[in-house]
């Protein structure tokens, strides 16, 4: 077994490329070694930490030969927090990497040859720091105080975050302020061992255009003090206009929101304005996390769609239907499909409050709604699915329905490439444009234009 490296073994490798999680990848006897924080063309000393069938994981011990693209991370807890994966790489290089990850996925899954000219340069995010308009952070009571932060990847160690450089500044400011108020009021983070305290997470969302903020407390059980704190926040700070509590005692679930969600102070929704449209955001409605870059993305849809006033368009996986709102003035009618009640309701409220009335909301699963409405004479379909992509049933529908144009927004290069492999039977890829929605993370967003052959 010459290929077997024992756990704890140190060795020096040359890093060949970056993987989908931003990790450096080198090889030992043709078996991959994944090393966080290592960069291509670097020679690094690593220590093997895990041996899987097809690859090893290793820690970076030291850098023997440094990449010219290596930079000093700008966050003091970057190596512990896990929220960002690429702060040690120059920003321009992170953009090239995101394009490269799409190329790798296309080469792996799409049988039809795709010219590299069709895969454009990544559209940068401006700004690339303090871009996140929402944070959902867990709390712990440790060392005699409430601490807020992020769990270190694959551990239950909470890394304290005081001033996150990717969250909007006002969000950082209000986390500190709320923690100070909790301390004054002797309120505790929930502790599952001692069964003390109530607050599990605090979610803060900010609307850039109006500077309105919404605070949501995720609680293990009811807490009258949280209600008092919510009322205080709304009375004292003009920015905080909406405060909710959610009782959620399911410690295993990844969902924050339950039926036990209540407005405790202020108004039900905060208002964001994009492209002249006022969107009302309740806490459990989907909204893109990088507001400026969302506007860039939606304008890209308009550019690629090159819509006509007679066009009938479908906005599938529509969320609160911002894409439908951007498209509506350019076309005859838009149908927006969304399955989650909160987002569907926000989309409905938005239509009532705004001028675009040529939008029809269809609630339900995309596959079911498309099949139920297969007689709609659709010209263009815009898809913005979750990471799972379109999948077999949607691509099957498209191969039969044959809309002239498909615009596919993807947040996962692998599922995009698998779907494109099927769609290229009937469609030509006109362009694939990566777009940096989450700077300094390994997330890759892209927008693809397909035209019927
Ligand atoms: C990536 S978000 C895009 C939302 C919207 N385009 C935007 O830019 O805000 C995907 C949306 O698809 C919805 N969704 C997920 N699976 C769905 C399905 N099977 N059918 C309909 N909607 C779905 C989610 O609730 C979410 O709102």
From TrEMBL:
One of its GO terms (molecular function) is methyltransferase activity. The gene is rlmD. Residues 4-62 form the TRAM domain. Belongs to the class I-like SAM-binding methyltransferase superfamily. RNA M5U methyltransferase family. NCBIfam families: rumA. GO terms for biological process: methylation. It comes from the Bacteria. The keyword Transferase applies. The keyword Chloroplast does not apply. This is 23S rRNA (Uracil(1939)-C(5))-methyltransferase RlmD. InterPro entries: MeTrfase_TrmA_AS, NA-bd_OB-fold, SAM-dependent_MTases_sf, TRAM_dom, U5_MeTrfase_fam. The active site is at residue 411. S-adenosyl-L-methionine binds at residues 288, 317, 338, 384. Keywords: Methyltransferase, S-adenosyl-L-methionine, Transferase. Its EC number is 2.1.1.190.
């Amino acid at each position: 077994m010459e290929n077997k490296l024992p756990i704890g073994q140190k060795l020096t490798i040359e890093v060949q490329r970056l993987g989908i999680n931003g990790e450096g990848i080198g090889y030992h006897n043709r078996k991959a070694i994944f090393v966080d924080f290592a960069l291509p063309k670097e020679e690094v000393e690593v220590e093997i930490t895990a041996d899987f069938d097809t690859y090893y994981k290793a820690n970076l011990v030291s850098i023997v030969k440094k990449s010219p693209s290596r930079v000093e991370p700008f966050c003091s807890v970057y190596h512990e927090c896990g929220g960002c994966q690429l702060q040690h790489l120059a920003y321009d290089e992170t953009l090239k990497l995101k394009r490269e990850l799409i190329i790798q996925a296309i080469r792996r899954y799409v049988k039809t040859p795709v010219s590299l000219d069709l895969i454009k340069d990544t559209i940068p995010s401006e700004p690339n720091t303090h871009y996140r308009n929402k944070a959902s952070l867990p709390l712990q009571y440790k060392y005699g105080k409430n601490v807020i932060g992020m769990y270190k990847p694959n551990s239950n160690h909470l890394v304290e975050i005081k001033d996150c450089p990717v969250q909007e500044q006002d969000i950082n400011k209000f986390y500190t302020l709320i923690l100070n108020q909790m301390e004054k009021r002797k309120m505790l983070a929930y502790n599952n061992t001692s069964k003390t305290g109530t607050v599990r997470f605090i979610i803060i969302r900010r609307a850039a255009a109006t500077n309105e903020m919404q605070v949501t407390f995720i609680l293990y059980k009811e807490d009258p003090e949280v209600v008092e704190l919510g009322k205080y926040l709304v009375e004292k700070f003009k920015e905080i206009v909406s405060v909710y509590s959610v009782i959620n005692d399911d410690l295993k679930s990844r969902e924050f929101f339950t039926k036990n969600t209540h407005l405790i102070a202020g108004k039900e929704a905060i208002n964001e304005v994009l492209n002249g449209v006022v969107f009302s955001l309740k806490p459990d409605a989907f909204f893109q996390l990088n507001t400026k870059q969302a506007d860039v993305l939606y304008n890209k849809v308009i550019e690629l769609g090159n819509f006509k006033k007679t066009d009938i368009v479908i906005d599938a996986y529509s969320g609160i239907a911002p894409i439908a709102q951007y498209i509506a003035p350019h076309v005859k009618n838009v149908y927006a499909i969304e399955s989650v009640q909160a987002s569907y309701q926000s989309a409905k409220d938005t239509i009532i409050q705004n001028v675009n009335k040529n939008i029809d909301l269809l609630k339900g699963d995309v596959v079911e709604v498309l099949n139920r409405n297969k007689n709609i004479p659709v010209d263009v379909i815009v898809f913005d699915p979750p990471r799972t992509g379109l999948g077999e049933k949607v691509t099957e529908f498209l191969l039969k329905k044959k809309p002239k144009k498909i615009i596919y927004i993807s947040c996962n290069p692998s599922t995009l490439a698998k779907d494109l492999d099927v769609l290229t039977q009937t469609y030509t890829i006109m362009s694939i444009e990566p777009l940096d929605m989450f700077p300094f993370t390994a997330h890759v967003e892209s927008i693809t234009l397909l035209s019927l052959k």
